[in-house]
Amino acid sequence: MLTKTRVQEFLKEIEVDDLVQNFQVMGDDVYIDMIAHSPAMHEKKKLEAAMKQAFATEFGDQVVLKLKITSPEPSQVQQNQIKGKEIPGIQNIIAIASGKGGVGKSTVTANLAVTLQKMGFSVGVLDADIYGPSVPTMFDTEAEKPISVEVDGKNMMKPIENYGVKMLSIGYFSGANQAVVWRGPMASKALNQMLRDAAWGNLDFLLIDLPPGTGDIHLSIIQEVPVTGAVIVSTPQHVALADVKKGIAMFTMESINIPVLGLIENMAYFTPEELPENKYYIFGKQGAQFMAEDLGIPVLGEIPLIQSIREAGDVGRPVALQEGSKIAEIYKETAQKMIESLVERNKNLPPTEAVKITTMAGCSTKK
Ligand SMILES: Nc1ncnc2c1ncn2[C@@H]1O[C@H](COP(=O)(O)OP(=O)(O)O)[C@@H](O)[C@H]1O
Ligand SMILES: [Mg+2]
């Protein structure tokens, strides 16, 4: 005689108990209401077939399984899609992305990193822009080479450190002027090593400086890495462009589902060094604001176009390190907004784990 307890045990055994909403056993009939992992028809069919097979094998033919499989609620879909392997010790992984190159993504990354560090967080930067690595220059660490250290009996890469920020870049491995020709799989492998075979230690934030655009590297990163959220950098000229929207769409598409924490508008206005209170909106005002509203994401900050930003970047000392300066203040506000957005995100969603996808047709840009 089949008992409810026996069926309950069995559902646990085959690891579907979390999908079962309720069930009843009446003689040889077993009624089960379940929620599928995804609303896709084939998922439901697959689940049904697997259940029938499992019950027949366990209880024989006389037991009749009466299954009702329903689609998950949208919020449940989201939770189920976020899967994968976390990186121990790293709390928040923020991907910094842009639709186009040259908008100041690396500059923003470097300045956010030192700002967060000054705020008391432990911060790492992973330069994933393998085509144009600029982290070594921006942190004045071009001559450094990562050494190997032993952690728990395993050889690990020790990140380079400057201004209290840990960093790794492909730029530390190849000769500085040597053009590196990377194909997707190679690049993805190198990045994975810098992520997982490195002694990052405990980090509050790992900022990933992504290459511009929405190509293969992005896909391999967001497939492999438990990205907590993405920050999009744009300039006013590019803000209205399809590139930015495409960049955002890449993170928000259903199979990826990485929350976009917000938009940083770089070179938003011009401020001459000698007139620090003046703002000239050369490329127009509020474009980012309008677009952000349109897309339902917050603007985290407006960074002015100022000469010292470029100069500081060139000499390898991010401008936000200049205590008491206006620009340091702007970066601090931006970092705070990012954290607010992150806290909001962490409240509403489970910890992001790597997204598992196999192909993503229609999402890469051909140059
Ligand atoms: N707000 C800014 N004001 C002045 N120059 C800037 C600013 N942001 C970036 N730059 C300069 O613009 C150039 C491109 O910036 P970079 O961060 O390398 O862009 P990306 O990483 O998007 O390709 C660099 O020379 C940098 O110093
Ligand atoms: Mg760059």
Automatic annotation (TrEMBL):
Pfam families: ParA
Species annotation: Cloacibacterium normanense
Assigned keywords, A-Z: ATP-binding, Hydrolase, Iron, Iron-sulfur, Metal-binding, Nucleotide-binding
Example GO biological process: iron-sulfur cluster assembly
Protein name stated in the entry: Iron-sulfur cluster carrier protein
Residues engaged in binding ATP: G99, K100, G101, G102, V103, G104, K105, S106
Family: Belongs to the Mrp/NBP35 ATP-binding proteins family.
Entries under PROSITE patterns matching the protein: MRP
GO molecular function, one term: 4 iron, 4 sulfur cluster binding
Function: Binds and transfers iron-sulfur (Fe-S) clusters to target apoproteins. Can hydrolyze ATP.
Source species taxonomy: Bacteria, Pseudomonadati, Bacteroidota, Flavobacteriia, Flavobacteriales
Self-association state and partner proteins as the record states: Homodimer.
The keyword ATP-binding appears for this protein: yes
Domain of life according to the entry: Bacteria
